[in-house]
Amino acid sequence: MNNPVSILEIAQAAGVSAATVSRVFNQPEKVRLGTREMVLAIATRHGYQPNSAASALRTQRSKILGVMLPTFGNPGFGVMPEFAKWVWATAGENVKPVFAAWPVGFDFTYVYWYLMRFHGQSPFSHHALDIRSFAMAYMNLTYRSCHKSKLQKRLKDRLNPTHRHDHIAVRDAIEQGELLVALLEANRDLHKQRPLG
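Predicted structure:
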């Protein structure tokens, strides 16, 4: 939509800067009420409308919300029950599976939501293990200083990774699983060397 006047012309007519006019439309709480009312009155009188495309380019926010409404045609209704069945079959009888990830917060929340939404239950219940927290305790480091590279270096004799983290979900899951198995074995051996209690 072409504006009959520009933001600079509104600023000049109001006796304020172009930045102030911009704030009136984008951050009105940052402009004094009297100034805001004056700028809005002048903009209305001249038929000025802010350019939403220019604003989106400047702020990198479109103010458009996309919503996906799942339906029974959504693949999640078929995939998540199959995934849950696979988890139970892999875990075996009388084993309660525990979800593990690095970091667990995002991945578990995402998987749990999909399981509940599309399957109605989770084979993990609410049980999740944060591999990073486990590694932090094992290496006696702070959470922020505990990085995969440090753990991989520490476990290099036990770890023979077949996959590297590349943000492809299946390969990342395999990489995290291999890391967890090596960490569990190292932790078990550490406690054999120095019994607790």
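Summary: Residues 169-193 form the longest helix (25 residues).
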